[in-house]
Amino acid sequence: MAALQLIAMGSFLTVCLVVGVRMLLLARRTRELPELTIGVAFLLIGGLGYSLILASRWAQQAAPDWLAWTWGSALLAVDVGGVMMAASTWRIFRPDRIGATIWGLISVALAVSWVGHALGPGFDRLGFEGPWPWFGILGRPAVTVWGSAEAFVYAGKLRRQLSLGIGDPEIRRRCLGWAVAGVAMSGIYLRTAIAQAIGDFDPASRAAMTVNVLCGLVAAGAIVRAFLWKDRYRARVAAPTV
Prior knowledge:
Radius of gyration: 19 Å
Number of helices: 8
Number of strands: 0
Structural class: mainly alpha
Largest sheet: none
Shape: globular
Mean pLDDT: 88
CATH topology: Rhopdopsin 7-helix transmembrane proteins
Oligomer: single chain
Order of helices and strands: HHHHHHHH
Helix content: over 70%
CATH class: Mainly Alpha
CATH architecture: Up-down Bundle
């Protein structure tokens, strides 16, 4: 199971790094906010955040003096990445006052969580203690659940357009890929929330590893479909007819 978890997390981290860099390069050309926020989110959550979480597990056993730094930095990277991901959901799917309000509430919750954790129990133990971390424990899945829900709704709208002979089927498939990735990432976050609620925060337990493996592989595959899949539809449409 440990080998499977390593494969799943390695796949997720690699995909996040590739998509993050690709979106930042795209943002450099377009100067648009959604590309920038998505790129930063993938690099912080998948690239830096989860790498530091793995480092924290190692530090807990091998280098306790490094644990506070790695664990605190991991949570900071994941939370800032969550703010960026929520910003992309706001700007892409719901660019109105409701979207701005949801983004603001999530951002405040994640900020309160990290600051409260730092000023309270601190980061010298791997886990969550006290009430403040709960803002983050619930705020992080709120980011992915919201993004996934908005992507599913938009894919539904595109399906209705396609039934009328208009719209782009590839965009709908990419929306569905993003939605499924959000569901899988939410599964990892919610597993953490449930484990914390029942007092069994052990990321090395068999149940935790099973959820992480399944959700990590699904998330990696769905992200590839959403961001890296070759657009065969546009290539076919653009091809010259004989």
